[in-house]
Every structure is written in C-alpha cells, then in structure tokens.
Amino acid sequence: MIRPCLLAFVALAVAVSAQDSPPNIVYIMSDELAYFELGHMGNPYMKTPRIDQMSKEGIRFTNALAASPVCAPLRGCFMTGKHSGHASVRANDGGTPLRAEEETIASMLKQKNYATGGFGKWGAGGRDSTGVPEKHGFDHFFGYYDQVHAHTFYPAYLIRNSEEVPLKGNEGGRSGETYSHYEIMKEGLEFIRRSKDTPFFCYLPITPPHGMYDIPADDPAWELYKDEDWINDKSIGQDVKNYAAMVTMVDKNLGAVIDLLKELRLEDNTIVFFTGDNGGQDRFQSKERPRGFFGPNKDPKTGVEFRGGKGNLYEGGLKIPFLVRWPGKVQPGRVSDLIFSQVDIMATLAEVSGTKAPSDTDGLSVLPEILGNSAEQKKHDMLYWEYGNQTAVRYGKWKAVESNKRKKSRWELFDLEKDIGEQQSIAEAYPEILTKMQAFAKASHEPVRSGTYHDEKQVRHQKDRKAKWGAAGPPESARKPKTAKRVGSKK
C-alpha cells in the first residue's frame, strides 16, 4: 500500500514536471474493441499478450464508459470534453463537424507547445468543413476523416491534412495491394520518433477491428493462432478468424509503441492510454452463440451479460476497456472501479500537461486516481448521455434509461451493483431517485449547434464516402451476406 505522503510527493512531482518539461501523451483507441475481448479478461479465443502485460504494468479501470455508444459522437465528445447534451457532434453520419471555434485536446496542448499528431479515424468533420483536425490543433492528421471511408482497409487513398495520399494498387473494397492500417501505424510511429525532443501528443484512433474484417494473410498476428483448433475449423467463417487476428494485430501495435518509447528512452516521461471507443457489438451471432462468437458483452468467467451493445445506452453500448501505463508514476497491477467517461479525458490531459481546459467543458480530471491518490479524486454527481431517441443518466450505482422518448417509453431504473445486466427495472420502488435523475437529464440537454461545410455540395467529403468501394461501387456479393475468404496482400 502506498502511503499518503508518498502519493502527495508523486502528485507534486508530476505537477512540477508538467511545469518544466510536460510529459508525452500517447492515446490509443481501438475501434470497437470490446470490454471482454481481451486475454486478461478471460476471453478464450483472443490472443492479446501485450495488452495483458500492460494491465499488469499499469492501472485497469472497470467502470470506464464511452461518451456515446457510436463512433462519431463519442469522438466529438472526447475531443472537446463535452457530454452529448452539449456536444456539436451528435449524429453518427461520419460527417457532422465540430464548430470552428471549439477547442480540442490538441489545441489545448498547444498552450505548452506540444507537437500534435493524429493517425486513424477522425469522425468529427469531413473535408472542407469547420471540423477538420488540422484546424483544431493537430499539426498532422493521417488516415480517414469520414467513418464510411474507414470501413475499407484497401482504399484508393488516405487523407493527410485534407489532401489525398494515393495507396498503390488499391481501388476500395476488400482487396488490394496496400493495407491502409500498416501505413497509418507507420506514420504514427514515425511521428513519435520525429518528435522525441519535444513534448508530443500522439493520438491513435485506429480502425481495427472495426470495418470490413480484412487482414493480410501473412500478418504476424496469425502466428499466435496456428495451433488453435478453432482457427482451422472450416465450419467457422473466415471473417470470424480475421477478426481475432485483427485484435492481435492491434495488440502488436501497442507493443510496437511501447517498444519504441523504450528505444528512444522516453518510457518514463510518457503516459500511455489504451482503450476501446464504444461498447461491443455482438458480431458473428448464431443459435449457439446469441451474444456473438467472441462474447464481447458476456463475462467469460461468470457468464454475466451486459444488456445491449453498440448503438444503445445500456451497459453493453457504453462499457469500454481502459488501461493506463506510466512507469514510475502509476502503480503496476492496480484495478480501479472509478466511474468516469471519455468526456473526462480532456480535463485529465490538461492536468497531466499543466495546461488549462476550456471553461465550457463537462469533464473532471481522473489523474489523481491514475496516480493512486484516490482520496483526492473528484467524482461526478451524475453522468449524462443522449443518442437519437435515447437518454441515460448514471448516479453512483443507479442507472436510468429512457430507451425511446419518441415512443414515450417509460424510464427504467437499475441498481448496477445488484443488476449489472440491467434486467429488472426498479423505477416504481424508487420514484424520488428517478425523479432526481430525470431532472438532471432535462437540465443537461441543449439544442445541438453543429459546425458547417464551406462547400455546400460537400464534394470532397462525399467522394471520401464513396471511396469505401471505389468507382465501381459495392459488388453484388457485398449486398448478400456470405462467408468471406481470407483476403489481403503479401505486402
């Protein structure tokens, strides 16, 4: 057990360090990697040794929650530190932009002259809009601006600061010569190497394992599965196998980042976050496996299930994996049940870097908890979510959900300490608690004010969306679900 005086010393040392030489920040967010899809969580299929190692070397959070149950809104909330009742990006169309004047994590870090790079999927404003990353504090952003574009790993081009970067031998769809994720990771690692002499923020919102489930047949991830009986079972679809290999590829990506930090002797001055973006999707369902082949929302150790999944506001749509590693500052092997969401990351990084978050944000720094100083950790009285016709509020152990306000569905109330699966509403038994949470929900919503496009026809943005399949459009096979063959180049 760490003594309070030592905790205070560590916190003071971090604050002093932030004033003199701010630490580097690496934030890796894997698209739809779910809470129970990791080896250290007991998943019997997934091979994630580097992620599992990180859970031993740092802190693992059990109550980290997405700011929204879908891609674009959570990215807007995360970047601006605003919950979904105040955010400018609330639709999941992939193109709704941030407003021009909004501060982001990247622009905030410019107060301390951070080098800022983003690599992966942006999702908070298409090209020629007020929401492009290079207008919101990023020196460099390379990858996909639109999330439909990000569904393919073989696009004809990626985007670097709003300009197209051709990828050799690609036309969109499910095959090609150049695997986009390799190019994205290459640029991300090069950014770290290039920025080693200055404080840097490396944001890696990587797309795997989401999108089309494609991975080169010679990717090193396959080596970890060669002796697995199920991987050679012909009755199991190739997409299922590809998905597992993609998760392991992400695992190796994390390892590559940590290994590079060690090589550059930056490890002790770099805080690394590894997380998913939103709750899991019950992919590859069958009669035998109604919650999906890999059980992303089902505890493999206990059989307890989260209700719902991606797209709704039950725990299945919001619960995400969340690990933090910072040698010498984060006590190895800790597990925390602090309740927080992605909205809190902006405030956290403000404290890490010695900068100041904008006054119109909704987050609280979770740095005290990360550093083991739980007594100093501030907590939200309540947390708020809205998405489409859904609303949810978290109040300690209580969770209130309005699943469809358009149809005037009745509010449900759950005690998550007794009912993590949200199976039995107890709203009628605790009317005063529900009334308080409903009042908070009403006060938390304001009309959305999104950004705009400079080009009313959104020509380049629409081009990016169509690039998912390329000029030929989707093939007939894409309209009729069937088992996919393993695809990919040897490059």
Give a nutshell description of this structure.
This protein has about 500 residues and is of the alpha/beta class. It has helices at about 5-20, 50-55, 70-80, 105-110, 180-195, 240-265, 315-320, 345-355, 365-370, 430-445, 460-465, 475-480; strands at about 25-30, 60, 65, 115-120, 140-145, 155-160, 165, 200-205, 270-275, 320-325, 335, 340, 385, 390-395, 400, 410-415. It has one domain: 3-Layer(aba) Sandwich (Alkaline Phosphatase, subunit A), CATH 3.40.720.10.
Keywords:
491 residues; alpha/beta; Alkaline Phosphatase, subunit A; ten-stranded mixed beta sheet; four-stranded antiparallel beta sheet; 12 helices; 16 strands; 25% helix; disordered N terminus; disordered C terminus
Describe this structure in words.
With 491 residues, the protein is an alpha/beta fold. The chain has a single domain, classed as Alkaline Phosphatase, subunit A. The protein is 25% helix and 15% strand. The protein has helices at 4-20, 49-57, 71-80, 105-109, 180-194, 238-263, 315-318, 345-353, 367-370, 431-444, 459-466, 476-479, and strands at residues 24-30, 59-61, 64-65, 115-121, 140-144, 157-160, 163-166, 200-204, 270-276, 322-325, 334-336, 340-341, 383-387, 390-395, 398-402, 412-415. It has a 10-stranded mixed sheet, with helices on one face. Strands 13-14-15-16 form a 4-stranded antiparallel sheet, with helices on one face. A two-stranded parallel sheet has the order 3-12. Helix 5 runs parallel beside helix 6. The longest helix has 26 residues, at 238-263. It is globular, with a radius of gyration of 22 Å. The relative contact order is 0.19. Mean pLDDT is 93; it is low at 1-10, 15-19 and 481-491.
